[in-house]
Amino acid sequence: MKRSIELLSPAKNAEIGIEAINHGADAVYIGAPKFGARSAAGNSIADIEALAAYARKFDARVYVALNTILRDDELAEAERMVWQLYRAGADALIVQDMGLLQMNLPPIELHASTQTDNRTFNKVKFLEEAGFTQVVLARELSLEQIREIASHTKARIECFVHGALCVSYSGQCYASQVTRGRSANRGECAQLCRLPYSLVDASGNRLSPEGHLLSLKDLDLSAHLGAMLDAGVSSFKIEGRLKEMDYVKNLTAYYRQKLDALLEDSEKYTKASSGTTRHFFMPDPQRTFQRGATSYFLTERNTGLVQTATPKSIGQPIGIAKRIERNSFTVKSLVPLANGDGLCYLAPDGQFTGIRVNRVEGDNVTPLKMPHLKSGIMLYRNFDQEFDKLLSKKSAERKIQVELTLRESATGISIEADAEGNRVMLYIPCEKELSTKDFSDVKENIRVQFSKLGNTDFELQSIRTEFSSPWFFPASKVSEWRRQTVAKLEQAVRINHRPLLRPKTDNKPAYPEQSLTYRGNVANAGARSFYLDRGVAKVEQALEAGGKLQPGQPVMITKYCLKYEMGWCPSKQHPKQAPREPFYLQGKNDRFLLQFDCKNCEMQLLIP
Question: Out of 28, 193, 520, 581, which could bridge 11 as a Cys pair, Cβ 3.0 to 4.6 Å?
Answer without folding.
Answer: 28
